[in-house]
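Collaborator request, handled under Task 6.
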Amino acid sequence: MDVMIIFKYIVIAALGGLGGVMANRGIAVFNDGFRPIVPQYYDKQISRKELAAMSFAISFGLVVGFGIPTSIAASVILIHCIFLATDIIGTFCPDNLVGTIISGVIGAVWGVLILVGLDGIVFLFNQLPFNFMGDLGKVSDFVIAAFAIFPAVAIGFQHGFKKGVIIGVITVIVYMTIMLFGKIPLPDGNNVVLNPAGISLLVGCVFMIIFAVTAKHEKTSANADLVNVFGEKVSRIRKNWPMLAVTGGLIACAASMSILAGDPISMPLISQGEYANAALTALARAIGFVPLVFTTAIVTGVYGPAGCTFVFPIGIALTGNPILAFVCGVACMVVELLLINAFAKLMDKFPGIKDMGEHIRNAMNKVLEVALIVGAVVSAEAMASNFKLTGVGALFIIGTLLLNRTSKKPIVEMAVGPVACIFFGILLNILAACHVVG
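C-alpha cells returned to the collaborator:
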C-alpha cells in the first residue's frame, strides 16, 4: 500500500480517536447545540445516560441524513461525519479511564470506517449498470456561484432589505465584470484568470464587516463580564490546549490532503482542485463562527474540536504540504485559545460583529438550502435524460423536498437534495436492471 494512503488512514484515525476522547472527558464537542448541555452533566443536573441520549438525538440525524450523503456526492469527507459521531461515541462510553480509552479506540475505528466506506461506496456506485456518480456531482454545481450572495443576504438580515439589495446588486455586477474582464495577460504570454465567485464573495464580505463595525449599538460590558465571571471555565479549556492543538493540526493536515472539508461549500471546490477559492470560502465561514464558538466556550468551558474552523482554510491553502499544514494548524489552535478573552472584549466594543455571526450562519444555511435543491433538480434531470425520462428527476426531487416537510421527523433541508439524488440514482439502476428503462 502507498505510504501516503497509509498516512491518510493514520490521520483520520487519530482525528476520530481524539474526537472520542475529548467528547468523553467533556473537553470539546462538535455540535454547537450540544455544547451548552455538556456542563449540566458535570454540574450533576443530568445523568450520563441523559447526556448520551441528548447527544444521540441531536447528532445522529445529521450524520446519517446530512454528513454522509454530502460526502458521497463530493467524494470528500465532511467533518460532520467524524466529529458528530464522536460526540455520540464519547458520551455513550463511561466517564472513567476505561471509558476514555474505549471512546478513543471506537472513535479511531469510526474514522477509518468513514474513509474506507466513502471510497467503497464510490467504487460500488461505479460498478452499477448505470454509473450516476458524474451526474451526482452536479448537485453542488450552483453552490459555488450562489455562495457569493450570502454576504448580501446576511446584510439584509442584520441591516435591512434595502442595504441587502444594494450589496446584492454590487455582488452581481462584480461577478459579471470579473467573468467578462477577469483575464489578465502576462508578458510571457500566459494569463491570470480571476475567479468571479471568489472576488465577488470577497467584496461582499468587506461590505458585511464595514456595516457590522459601523452599526450603532448601546455600549455594554457583557462579554468582558463573561470573561471575568467564567474565568475558571476559560482556564479549563486552556488547560487542555495540547490535545486541542494536535486536533487542529490533524484537521489542517487532512484538509491539505483533500480528504476532509469543514463545510459543503468548499467541498466541491476541493474536489475540483480549486484550492484558492475553497480556502477563501472556508475563511468566510470561519469568520461567522468566531462569536458562537468563543461565547459558548466562555460560558460552558467546552470548546469545539475544530475551534473556530480557521484550521480548514489553512489546510486547504497548504494543499500538498501536510506536515507544514499540521504545524500551522497547531499554531492556529494555540493562538485561538490565547485570544478567547481578547475576542470577547472586541465583540463588546463592536457588538455588530457578534450579531453578524448569527446572521452569517443563517444566510449560509438559506443559500445552501436553495442552491443544493436547484443543483439536485439539475442532477436528477441529467440522470433521467439518459433514459428519456425528462421531468421525472425534477418531480422526484421537488416531491421529496415537500413530502419531507410533512414528516414528523424530517431530515435537515440542506440534506434533502443530495439524499434524494442518491436514491433517485439507485432507483434508476433498479429499473434498468429490471429492463423497465434502458
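The cover message to the collaborator said: "Strands lie at 77-78, 183-185, 191-193, 260-261. The chain has a mean pLDDT of 85. Please let us know whether this matches your experimental observations."
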